[in-house]
């Protein structure tokens, strides 16, 4: 039998609900994080070795470990939401989480649109082709070719700027699949991600055909004017000074990619 709540009780519940919504959306995000004791983080969970499922099925990776270390410095726990790259900033803007930890490359557009932390990864862009394809040996050779990229990634823009037609994919693994199937000519990505793929799979069907010639810097991203970044940057500075960032980097790459190479 359906029961009807008294009008006075409905009014009280509505007021409490509205009050709760107001608290969650008001004030700097850092204050909300410290009050709740939880930093909400968006990440792919499919981008090895940065954010992926380990052998035990748990989320792991370089970015995951770094943001957990940041959370420890802030004295809060980290709660992850896994989402595809092409919807990761939409989730941030919709306030599904407070911050993106997923190799966000620093560029002018993102700097204007989001709060970005100091970089915690430095890497090089490379072009991957099938092993038997010798037609692409430089970025200029992508002109008129088709590459597989996450549509909103910086690597997609690098490919477009070189004159390539970009086939949209959800992530790196799908890009490699299309490449091996002969449906695209190449994919542009981070040298660290490509090296990890080759190490894990031993795949001899693809190769690094060329370097893009640019060094990219990756950072955490939050909504503009979130108030988060001074605390995030302070934590990163402490983790860099005490050797934690270098230690996490050695764990995943065998070298320190948390600082620029000169």
Q: What key phrases describe this protein's structure?
A:
single chain, 262 residues, alpha/beta, D-Maltodextrin-Binding Protein, domain 2, 2 domains, 7-stranded mixed β-sheet, two-stranded antiparallel ribbon, 10 helices, 39% helix, 25% strand
Offer a quick outline of the entry.
The chain is α/β, with parallel strands linked by helices and 262 residues long. The chain is built from ten helices and eleven strands. The chain has two domains: 36-122 and 217-253, D-Maltodextrin-Binding Protein, domain 2; 123-215, 3-Layer(aba) Sandwich (D-Maltodextrin-Binding Protein, domain 2), CATH 3.40.190.
Describe the structure.
This is Cystine ABC transporter cystine-binding protein. Residues 38-256 form the Solute-binding protein family 3/N-terminal domain. Keywords: Signal. It comes from Rhodococcus opacus (strain B4). It holds the Pfam family SBP_bac_3. The protein has 262 residues and is of the alpha/beta class. The chain has two domains: 36-122 and 217-253, 3-Layer(aba) Sandwich (D-Maltodextrin-Binding Protein, domain 2), CATH 3.40.190.10; 123-215, D-Maltodextrin-Binding Protein, domain 2, CATH 3.40.190.10. It has ten helices and eleven strands. Strands 1, 4, 5, 6, 7, 10 and 11 form a seven-stranded mixed beta sheet that branches. Strand 8, helix 6 and strand 9 form a beta-alpha-beta unit. Helix 3 packs across helix 9. The longest helix is centred in the first third of the chain and has 19 residues, at 7-25. The radius of gyration is 21 Å and the shape is globular. The chain starts with 6 loop residues before the first helix and ends in a 9-residue tail after the last helix.
